[in-house]
Amino acid sequence: PALEQVGCVIFDELHERSLQADLGLALVLDCQRHLRPDLRVLVMSATLDTAAVARLLGSDAVISAPGLSHPVETRYLPRPTDEYPDRLATAAVHRGLAEETGDILVFLPGAGEIRRVAGALGETELPRGTRVLPLHGDLSQDEQDRAIAPGLPGERKVVLATNIAETSLTIEG
């Protein structure tokens, strides 16, 4: 209960706020304050306001490591009420392939939606050298690795992913 055998508790990606992470941090800080002043807390994030977090932790120790920033453009398409979401996603992928170069990452709510959109894309004519790759937690490690790995020369990837790829992974390309 007092984390007797623990020297340090690490919170990674704390910017991904959740009830569990917030409660966990609150409990660890309470434990540190009342039971274990020797307990260390390490918070990591690429996007947090470090000064605010340092104040919360009662510390001014901040380690900063500059990283690479890649441009991301988010586009929202109007959603007609008479279209199924998988048809809308399929049309958006075709539009992206026609209007842009490079790979496409599509976020979908779950594995079922990924399967439906992959099936719909498989029934359409995609540009030569385009590979559709699903990415969700129910896939084998090899299947997930294929979606994350860089594409072959001359190949374009369309990765259909759950939100696991939004915060927890880096997809080459």
How would you explain this protein's 3D organization?
The chain is elongated. The protein has helices at residues 19-34, 50-57, 85-99, 111-122, 141-148, 164-167, and strands spanning 8-11, 40-43, 104-107, 130-135, 156-161. Helix 3 packs across helix 4. Strand 1, helix 1 and strand 2 form a beta-alpha-beta unit. A 3-stranded parallel β-sheet has the order 3-5-4, sandwiched between helices. It has a two-stranded parallel sheet with strand order 1-2. It is an alpha/beta fold. The mean pLDDT is 86. The protein has 6 helices and 5 strands, in the order βαβααβαβαβα.
Record keyword descriptors for this entry.
173 residues; alpha/beta; two-stranded parallel ribbon; 6 helices; 5 strands; elongated
Could you give a quick summary of the protein structure above?
The chain is of the alpha/beta class. 36% of the residues lie in helices and 14% in strands. Helix 3 (85-99) crosses helix 4.
Q: What does the average pLDDT come to? A: 86
Q: How far from one another are the termini?
A: 45 Å
The general outline is elongated
Specify the number of helices. 6
Estimated share of beta-strand residues: 5-15%
Helical content (DSSP H or I, runs of 4+)? 25-40%
What is the SS-derived class?
Answer: alpha/beta
The major β-sheet equals: 3 strands, parallel
Pattern of helices and strands: EHEHHEHEHEH
Total strand segments? 5
User: What is Rg?
Assistant: 21 Å
Spatial order of strands in the largest sheet: 3-5-4
The low-confidence runs, each spanning 5 or more residues with pLDDT under 50, are none
